[in-house]
Amino acid sequence: MAHEPGPPVVNAFRPHSSGLSKLFGSLESDIMELLWSRGEMSGRDVFEALRDQGQRLSYGAVKTVLNRLVQKDVLRFTQEKNQNLYRPRLSREEFTTSAVREIVTSLVDSFGEPALAQFLDQLQAADPAQLAALAARVEAAEARKRGG
Q1: What CATH code is assigned to 19-88?
Q2: What is the pTM of this model?
Q3: Cα–Cα distance, 134 to 94 (Å, whole number)
Q4: pLDDT, tens digit, for every residue of 48-60?
């Protein structure tokens, strides 16, 4: 069964950053981590949680970033009883899978053979357990294609 792509999740890719900062700005990353760990939160709750983590931000700055994440279609926004509520559109795992799929597809579409060769070079340096897991996925994919 082929996976139907949803709306794009990658708006920028910063290969020299680490973790979520490859895909988001630092404040966006912090906000997404909060929302993935807690689920739905009000803008005020996000602001207070970031402040409790030692960040010195204005409420307006946090709201601006929350609204930017809604515009990027990474967060959903609802309003209940004069409270703006935000929640991730995808789980962390779903988001990561979609982002990696977009990046890899873009690299292969744009660069073809050099991109694939680089993936093979990375595989040669991979942990044996990772290679075994990948081999199992390849085998399962081949079995699906054969109809079994």
Answers
A1: 1.10.10.10
A2: 0.78
A3: 19
A4: 999 999 999 999 9
